[in-house]
Structure formats: structure tokens, C-alpha cells
Amino acid sequence: WDVMFQENCYSAIEKYSWPAFACEATHRYAFASRNDIPSMSMFYDINPENFYFSWACAISWGQLYNSEFIRSTEMVQSEKKFRSFEDRYPQQVYDQKKVCDYAIYFSTKTRDRTENAIENSMNDVVNWEQAGLFSQKLFDFVLEEDAVEKLRKYSVIVLPHVFMLSCTELKKLRNYVAE
């Protein structure tokens, strides 16, 4: 893959649905970073105010910004203003390194496999994403295959909706807690 892509809905409602986009963007940023590829948000902007809002969201989430809009003179001028900022400050726009307050343990092995469990386990992940978003805490994801050294980068590891842990995972988490 060249980019991890996120399509966001029509900008007329994005000012109400941005928290969901922000959580998904953080999730995509984390997994794109693991694969050394950029994460990108696409918005459908209808006026310069929407353009600014969606651009600011994407940049603050560490994502590249892509907009689909009607090519009016006003919208083209808006785009030029933001693209010139990106050209002038590429380090701040394209090379963000997040310093996270906590990490969410994202494991395919620890989930409940009973009926409707997927929705329940993902709801708990989203709840922790939203808690971070609204308390202004940055978060990342760690996976079951990550070494304990990766976990040690975070002062807190959240294990949402953990149903079971393998012996390997328990040992790794004990090592993390011990240090």
C-alpha cells in the first residue's frame, strides 16, 4: 500500500461527526505508521469554512488532507492558501511524531468470540478512543505481536474488553508491569 485512506462524509455534517472521524483517524494513523506509509483523510467540502475545518482536522490528526470540492474560484483560492502553508512548513505537516499518553492493546486473540461480541469489543475500543479525544490525551495502539520494548514506550496500556490472554501475552504484560 502507498497510503492508508479514510473517506469522511459530506462536510455539511462533519462539524457534528468529527469525533468519530478523529477516532478512526487516530486508529489509521497508528497502523499506517507501523507500515511506514502516510495516513490520509478525504473530505467533501462545500465552502471555504468547511475546507478550513476539515483541513485543520486532518493535519491535527497527523493525516494528509485530500478534498473533493466544486472548483469555484473561492474554493480554489482556499486550497492555495492551505497548500502554501503545507509547502512552507512540511516538517510540521508531513513528519508528525506523536508523543502519546497511553496505548490501547489491540489484540485479535483476546476478544470474546460469542454472538455479537465483535460489536461489543470494538465499542470498548472506541470508548477509550473517545475518552482520549475528549480529555485531550493522545493515544496509540499496541498489538499482541509487539515486543515488551514497544509497550514500555507508554506509561499506561489499556486492555479494553479482554476476554482471555495467552501465556505469551501474560508473560509480556507481566514484564511490562514489572519495570
What can be said about this structure in brief?
Helices cover 50% and strands 18% of the residues.
Largest sheet: 3 strands, parallel
Low-confidence stretches: none
Strands in their spatial order, largest beta sheet: 1-2-3
Gyration radius from CA atoms, angstroms? 18 Å
Order of helices and strands: EHEHEHHEHEHEH
Given the structure, what is the number of helices? 7
Distance between the termini: 36 Å
Pairing-aware structural class of the strands and helices?
A: alpha/beta
Number of strand segments: 6
Note the overall shape. elongated
Give the helix proportion (percent range): 40-55%
Mean pLDDT: 84
Q: Proportion of β residues?
A: 15-25%
Walk me through this protein's architecture.
With 179 residues, the chain is an alpha/beta fold. It has 7 helices and 6 strands. The protein has a 3-stranded parallel β-sheet with strand order 1-2-3. It has a 3-stranded parallel β-sheet with strand order 5-4-6, covered by helices on one side.
Which secondary structure elements does this structure contain, and how are they paired or packed?
Layout: E1 4-10, H1 14-34, E2 39-45, H2 48-60, E3 64-69, H3 73-88, H4 90-94, E4 102-106, H5 117-134, E5 139-143, H6 148-151, E6 157-158, H7 167-178
Parallel strand pairs: 1-2, 2-3, 4-5, 4-6
Helix pairs in contact: 1-2, 1-5, 2-3
